[in-house]
Amino acid sequence: MKESKKWWVLGTVSLAVFMAMLDITIVNVALPEIQQSFAGSFSSLQWVLNAYTLVYAVMLLPVSKLGDRFSRKIVFLSGLLVFIIGSLASGMATSDLWLNIFRGLQGVGGAAMMSLSLSIVTSAFPEKQRGLALGIWSSAVGLAVSIGPLLGGILVDSLGWRSIFLINIPVGIIAILFGMIFITDTTKKQRESFDFLGLIFSTIMIFSAVFALIQKQTHSDYTWTNWRIIALFALAVVSLGLFIIAERKVKVPMIDLSIFKSRSFIGANIAAFTLGAGLYGGFTYLSILMQNYMGYSAFETGLKLLLISVFTLILGPFTWVITNRIGNRWLITIALFIGMVGILIINYLLKVPFEWSYLFPGFILLGISNALVNPPISNVAMSSVAEKHIGMASGILNVSRQVGISFGVVMLGISVTNGYFDSLTSSLKNMTEVPAAMKTQLVEILHKAGPFAGQQIFDSKQAEAYQQLPIFDQIKNIVFQAFNEGMNHANILIAVLLGIGALASLLLIRDKQKA
């Protein structure tokens, strides 16, 4: 491929990936306005996020296989078109139900773009330039995750919530035109029969696992032993077993299980999972801390998170230089360790009253970690499999990252909630000057509001009756201290997840020996 053309390919793919990843985070800040527009329930509001995430995760493997079988270029551009149609329909939705359906359609297109982007970039660049190309690709992913709240805040404040979907249309059309011109199809089309059993079992497996996590997230009263949760996880495990059996028997499997013989490939996927669960899952609760407890607007919160994405822009494209010196294995290990230290510093400094200075040092380290870790993870995953398995490897890596994010959001949410309620109950019990009847009423109000309401609890009509009481400020301090305790629990879990990823990378990943 000509020198200039491959950079246009990279630019086109990065633009599409940026758009797909942006749609995962940009919607967060628009939820209050969407709820007001449709007068929807909280559960239907959560599905504005979950519909995209669920379909996106489920479709990553099937579309990557379709790209390998028919044409990566055609499937990628078809995904772009589906994403544009889903964005237009979401922007014109007349109810929360239709919005959720169209968000699922966006998820199909987003999965096609994301899953095939890595294989297209890998095929376009020779191995000696692949690290730089994947660094730029990873910068687009990291920037989209970090800048989503800021861009969403700007669009919602100035043009309304529908603009966050409609903005995708002109961007997507540009990406399609560039893709048609510059992307060269190098796919070797396969004529063998399609692995329908593998498709069915893998879809059921991923759907069940992610949907079980979503059920736990949206139903705080469900325990892990709830029959719905157990049934979904059991279905995922059974589907996994059937999937493995089917893949061993078909001539052309959807996933060639031999790629898991590569320790490096396994290490890269563990790193991607823990990165998604720890760092990207943690963004949700750091945003809640800044908006609901520190009083920052959606725009201001996004501006603070830019501190993380700035490092992605600066360091991302140059990680290949560091990789050439110390190797992918050590770079991934060190980057995850830096992230672990960053979250532990936040945990050590964080106290009530919350201040930006407590987050600032940790955000710098999280930004460096995020910038350094994505390119070598992608590089390891792509370079540790045969050329014919690149599309498959790309799909598996993206599934690991996305399921990791879903897992992290749920598990970190449970950690915050448990720490919050334990601290709240204990502190209110020790308030001997409050009458028992009032204490019971307070506990009921605060438990119903939950840990993520923050300042909204004290601005609500229910709180007006208590505002003149001498204990009002004391109760407010108890709530903030309880959330701090919940964040401590979550921060420790993030550190553990990143530590597991660092250790797995160190033990499993092996760099290719230089000639």
From TrEMBL:
SUPFAM superfamilies in the record: MFS general substrate transporter (SSF103473)
Domain called Major facilitator superfamily (MFS) profile: residue spans: 9-513
UniProt KW keywords: Cell membrane, Membrane, Transmembrane, Transmembrane helix, Transport
Gene Ontology MF terms: transmembrane transporter activity
GO cellular component: plasma membrane
TM stretches of this protein: 7-31, 43-62, 74-93, 105-125, 132-155, 161-184, 196-215, 227-246, 266-290, 302-323, 330-350, 356-382, 403-421, 490-509
InterPro entries given in the database record: EmrB-like, MFS, MFS_dom, MFS_trans_sf
Its membrane topology: Multi-pass membrane protein
Cellular location(s): Cell membrane
Record family assignment: Belongs to the major facilitator superfamily. EmrB family.
Protein name, per record: Multidrug MFS transporter
Organism: Listeria weihenstephanensis
